[in-house]
């Protein structure tokens, strides 16, 4: 209990640890921004897409569940200053596996509501082109 209180006090002075993690990592910020844009690509935000986003945040990036709403708020503020091309530019110099991971996460969110809208496919196709990733790389299981 004392540790939880100390964490709360530190969070007040230092900010949310999940938001700090995202803010301190431009590549992570760019990836989460692209994932969030995929959620919005079809014009509706479904519960299943948000659940997939939250799970990716937790499992792939180690963002605590308690921080995810604050991270979304940060991305909302940050997103107005960054377009998709600028976000993708963060990935061009990364290794191919990291780029494939972004594409797989985007596809996972697009499929989460069991409907692939044309706008979701366009965003994914454009992202794959910019990242120089084959569509086959998105459907292949990770090795």
From TrEMBL:
Name of the protein in question: Co-chaperone DjlA N-terminal domain-containing protein
Pfam families given in the database record: TerB (PF05099)
Every Co-chaperone DjlA N-terminal domain range: 33-138
Coiled-coil residue windows: none
Gene3D superfamilies from the UniProt entry: TerB-like (1.10.3680.10)
Organism: Mesorhizobium temperatum
């Amino acid at each position: 209990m004392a540790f939880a209180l100390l964490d709360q006090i530190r969070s007040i002075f230092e900010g949310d640890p999940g938001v700090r993690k995202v803010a301190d990592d431009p590549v992570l910020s760019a990836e989460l921004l692209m994932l969030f844009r995929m959620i919005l690509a079809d014009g509706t935000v479904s519960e299943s897409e948000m659940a997939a986003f939250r799970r990716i945040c937790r499992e792939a990036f180690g963002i605590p569940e308690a921080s995810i709403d604050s991270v979304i708020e940060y991305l909302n503020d940050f997103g107005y200053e960054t377009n998709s091309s600028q976000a993708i530019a963060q990935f061009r110099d990364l290794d191919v596996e990291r780029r494939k991971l972004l594409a797989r996460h985007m596809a996972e969110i697009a499929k989460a509501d069991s409907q692939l809208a044309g706008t979701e496919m366009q965003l994914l196709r454009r992202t794959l082109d910019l990242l120089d990733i084959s569509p086959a790389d998105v459907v292949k299981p990770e090795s």
